[in-house]
Amino acid sequence: MGCPASTVLTETDSARYAALPNSVYETSEEQWCALSPGHDGEHAAEVQSAVFSDRSYWMFWNDGEPGYRILLLPNCPVTCRRADHTTALCLLYAGHGGAHDWIDQKG
After folding, report:
1. Whole-model pTM above 0.85?
2. Distance CA 7, CA 16 (A)
3. Which of 4, 69, 81, 97 is deepest in the core (most CB within 10 A)?
4. How many structural domains comprise the chain?
């Protein structure tokens, strides 16, 4: 289970990132922190990515402070070898704090 923090993306930003070419996700106004519980620093949620892209749009915010910022960041390059000898990718951005979030954990 990840960090329980959440925030709201404006309707305008939600529509803007949903309309990007080759979008992967349906954007949602409610955004949940994707980092591990107890992480240091800002909360982070992936807003949008594109098919075959090595970067994603991430939103960052602090508890109790108004607003957020959105940055286009490279994906985390760290991988993990599974028991079946295939590779799992970290779903977070490069340089994130806390634990990696492996694709296997998303079911």
Report:
1. yes
2. 17
3. 97
4. 1
Integer angstrom CA distances of residue 13 from 25, 86, 95? 14, 36, 24
Could you give the maximum distance between any two Cα atoms of the chain, in Å? 45
Report H helices in the chain. 11-18
Average pLDDT over the chain, rounded to an integer: 91
Residue 47 lies in a domain: yes
Domain boundaries, position 68: 6-106
Residue 1 is assigned to a structural domain of this protein: no
Number of residues assigned to the chain: 107
Q: How far apart are CA 77 and CA 59, in angstroms?
A: 19
CA angle 9, 43, 30 (to 5 degrees): 25
pLDDT tens-digit readout, 27-40 = 999 999 999 999 99
